[in-house]
Amino acid sequence: MTLGPLMLDIAGPELTQEDRELLQHPAVGGVILFTRNAHSPQQLRDLVAAIHGLRNPQLLVAVDQEGGRVQRFRDGFTRLPPLACLGERYGQDRGRAKHLAQVTGWLMAAELRAVGVDISFAPVLDLDYGVSTIIGNRALHQRPEIVAELAQAYQSGMHDAGMAATGKHFPGHGAVAADSHLELPTDPRSYEDIAQWDMVPFERMIHYGLPAVMMAHIVYPLVDANPAGFSRFWTKGVLRDQLGFQGLIFSDDLNMAGAAVAGEHVDRARLSLEAGCDMVLVCNAREPAAAVAEALSGYTNPVSHTRIARLHGHPAPDLQQLHADPRWKQAVMAVTGCEAAPELDLDL
User: Fold this and answer.
1) What single-letter DSSP state applies at residue 53?
2) Spatial separation of the C-alpha atoms in residues 15 and 10, rounded to whole Å
3) Residue 24: partners with Cβ closer than 8 Å, 6 or more residues away
4) DSSP alpha helices (H): ranges in the chain?
5) How many CB atoms are closer than 10 A to CB 267?
6) Cβ contacts of residue 151 below 8 Å, gap of 6+?
7) Rg of the chain, C-alpha, whole Å
8) Using one digit for the tens of pLDDT, what is the confidence trace for 75-104?
9) What are the residue numbers of the active site?
10) How far is residue 200's CA from residue 191's CA, in Å, rounded to a whole number?
11) Please, how many CA atoms are within 13 Å of residue 24, restricted to the half-sphere of its CB?
């Protein structure tokens, strides 16, 4: 059985019979985990193993483990700093900042791979314009060339730990104040402005071999009337044709308010796939997710199947082996203290 284009969530720390039945639906290809799914590293490892054991090829297991406000797994995992800490270090010492970015990417990915998780949706490639409440210090820096430089080092660390990186949110989420979880943001800038600033980190990271991209639920009305994740112009015209991206394109969560403009969840999923996304996310909405799975029963895209399969994590040490590794101990010391005053976790 091939992997389908739908990624969804589960309710608790163990699979229910309902979960097992839905996750074996041919339209499902992945599972995204949240804080509620993780009580301890061992329990999490058992859960991921159970998910992987349902299908062959295995379902893709993902999480948002950026650091700072967005870190789903906490107990038993190193507290990671927000990416903005790396940008702040860059202004003090470029070389040390790049090294810390590589170490942070490796540590994040190594701890996730130790419990079997395939990917984290990281790093954020949005620019920090100082206006976005939802992005804020999740962004590496305000300058695109610095974001790209640090993101390349971060991606290198992830790759070294056996994990593929996902850049988000294309073509750029940092210049709007509205939160796309709650409403549909509008960015009034011209294509030229977006291309000269926000798209630069994505373009450079694609050149560096970025394996996956997540789209933004944002409308850029001077460019296209549709939100980016539902826009053939942005996904196929710009990301595929102009930038030459050959990796996997994720939608952002179709349960977010920013996606509601496209209709019901089934309509949102179909429009995303028609626009050029390879995999769509429906989170925290079991009935709509099940409806999307049924609606996509006959959907197939061999190229997307290949792209999804490439994101599976590479073999990695378990947690006991990882914790015995001097590199892990050094990495924990390196990131500890980078975040001077930890913020409240953002568990969206």
Assistant:
1) T
2) 7
3) 54, 55
4) 17-23, 41-52, 84-92, 94-114, 144-160, 191-196, 199-207, 232, 265-275, 286-295, 302-309, 319-323, 326-335
5) 15
6) 101, 123, 125, 140, 165, 167, 201, 205
7) 19
8) 999 999 999 999 999 999 999 999 999 999
9) 181, 252
10) 12
11) 11
Which helix (H) or strand (E) is 74 found in, with range?
A: none
**Crossing angle between the packed helical segments 84-92 and 94-114, to the nearest 10 degrees:** 150
Distance CA 72, CA 110 (A): 15
Residue for token digits 């906490």? Answer: 74
List residues bridging with 67 in a β-sheet.
70
Distance (Å) of CA 161 to CA 42, 204, 206, 336: 19, 22, 20, 19
Q: Which of 31, 55, 33, 30 is nearest to 43 (CA)?
A: 33
Place of tokens 């971060």: 154
Say how far apart CA 17 and CA 28 lie, in whole Å: 16
How far apart, in whole angstroms, are the C-alpha atoms of residue 19 and residue 336?
37
Integer Cα distance of 205 and 278 in angstroms: 19
Encode pLDDT of 96-155 as tens digits: 999 999 999 999 999 999 999 999 999 999 999 999 888 999 999 999 999 999 999 999
Residue for token pair 């509205």: 178
Whether the Cβ atoms of residue 261 and residue 227 lie closer than 8 Å to each other: yes
What structural domains does the chain harbor?
A: 6-335 (3.20.20.300)
Which helix (H) or strand (E) segment holds residue 61: the answer is strand 60-63
